[in-house]
Amino acid sequence: MDDIIIVGAGIGGLTLGLALHAAGIPCRIFESAAEIRPIGVGINLLPHATRELAALGLEQTLARVAIATEDATFFNRFGQLIYREPLGRGAGYEHPQFSIHRGDLQMILLDAFLARAGHDRLVTSHHCTGVVQDESGVDVHFSDRAGGASLITVRGRAAIACDGINSAIRKQFFPDEGEPRYSGVNMWRGVTRWQPMLSGASMVRAGWLSHGKMVIYPIRQASDDGLQLINWVAEIETPTYRKRDWNRAGRAEDFIGAFADWHFDWLDVPAFIRAADSVLEFPMVDQDPLPRWSFGRATLLGDAAHPMVPRGSNGAGQAILDARALASALLENGDPVAALAAYEQQRLEATTRIVLTNRTNPPDAILREVFERTNDRPFATIDDVISHQELVALSEGYKRIAGYSKEALRT
Ligand SMILES: Cc1cc2nc3c(=O)[nH]c(=O)nc-3n(C[C@H](O)[C@H](O)[C@H](O)COP(=O)(O)OP(=O)(O)OC[C@H]3O[C@@H](n4cnc5c(N)ncnc54)[C@H](O)[C@@H]3O)c2cc1C
């Protein structure tokens, strides 16, 4: 009854569990899956998120598996360099930017949570179906799996929905919310074992959405054969899309044509795509920001609260920042209702700005500017197209909105 009930053992739920445990606040995590398996492909953790994970004592563990990303590098579809800037420590941040396999990140969080809080604090095969609250507590209802038989009701001081993009609790609070908003861009994602390219720790963005854009970055240190695990996402404007599902298989034939001529000295893109372990397909969707997340003793966190299009490397990071803010609010307020309201106050507006900016001016706006100003033709020199100051301003503007400008992190 004294526990904070966390629904979902993804990135946000596990980070919240760790942060609450560190604050001495009892919690239990209930996860729908029967077993937590290292699913997904690449994720980026920007310095504001790695700062929080470092505070939880996880930086060294992350550094052993992840890539400390060194630079963001932008090319047009002819392979011409548009802009390069240092990232993480190389850019003067106190904490690194990590590019990591989502499964590696989830397992590091999971192992730390089980070791610190105890194995009995995580319960699998519990799919939340809704919450009911009264003045003294909240009942969280579970079935044995999605659409399965009703299982048990667990009572706690507060319930935190960390159940991702298809959150059951969000649906309970906002039953009339429409379908996710399709951006008009479809994504195909995968990982390929390949030799290190560029700096060996570069985050590459190339091309533009109308003809085909690629995001490419390594997510695991090289193994004995010298190959890294390299994450890639192909993004192309496409009128139709299929329902979002992290595990939906995709086909290279459906998009590889857009990259048929991409033979660069730093990468043969078609060969690289063909060598992928597997291909996943996912529509670039988000949802309109909500007017509120907290309802008495229940609130939303991470993708359940603010699903965003993945154009700023901020999905996982914002869930981590939510977790930190909520743990602090619960530590400062004995009354969970006041704590959840304070958490919403701190995080709702900040994440709303990011959701909206990801639609219009994420970091890849640099590629859009060059695409439009050159009419999608090769340039003689980039300075004829866009000044260095403009490129810096586009990049820095996003950092300020997303809360990881160097000035913001210093304060
Ligand atoms: C299988 C999977 C693969 C992903 N792959 C990628 C990827 O490759 N790249 C990327 O950028 N992002 C990926 N994501 C999303 C990414 O983890 C999130 O965008 C981000 O980290 C925010 O985390 P979150 O904790 O809010 O959500 P998530 O990390 O999605 O975690 C949600 C958790 O809640 C559980 N859950 C769902 N419904 C219920 C329920 N009703 N009751 C109990 N538990 C429930 C889920 O099983 C999951 O463990 C993936 C998510 C999932 C679930």
Can you walk me through this structure?
Helix content is 31%, strand content 26%. By secondary structure, the protein is α/β, with parallel strands linked by helices. The protein has a 7-stranded mixed sheet. Strands 8-2-1-12-18 form a 5-stranded parallel sheet. Strands 3-7-4 form a 3-stranded antiparallel sheet. It binds flavin-adenine dinucleotide.
Gyration radius, in Å? 21 Å
Q: What percentage of residues falls in helices of 4 or more residues? A: 25-40%
> Could you give the order of the helices and strands?
EHEEHHEEEEHEEEEEHEEEEHEEHHHHH
Secondary-structure class: alpha/beta
Mean pLDDT: 95
Which range does the strand content fall in? 25-35%
Total helices: the number is 11
List the ions, cofactors and other small molecules found in this model.
Answer: flavin-adenine dinucleotide
* Main pleated-sheet profile: 7 strands, mixed
In one word, what is the shape? Answer: globular
Distance between the termini: 38 Å
Give the number of DSSP strands: 18
Stretches with pLDDT under 50, minimum 5 residues: none
- How are the strands ordered across the major sheet? 6-5-14-15-16-13-17
What would a concise description of this structure say?
The chain is of the alpha/beta class and 411 residues long. The protein is 31% helix and 26% strand.
Draw up the topology in text:
Elements (H helix, E strand, L loop, with lengths): L3 E4 L3 H12 L4 E4 L11 E4 L1 H9 L3 H7 L1 E2 L2 E5 L5 E6 L11 E4 H16 L4 E2 L3 E7 L4 E6 L6 E7 L1 E4 L6 H6 L7 E14 L7 E7 L3 E9 L7 E10 L31 H6 L4 E8 L11 E3 L14 H18 L3 H25 L4 H9 L14 H15 L3 H5 L1
Parallel strand pairs: 1-2, 1-12, 2-8, 5-14, 12-18
Antiparallel strand pairs: 3-7, 4-7, 5-6, 9-10, 10-11, 13-16, 13-17, 14-15, 15-16
Bound molecules: flavin-adenine dinucleotide (FAD).
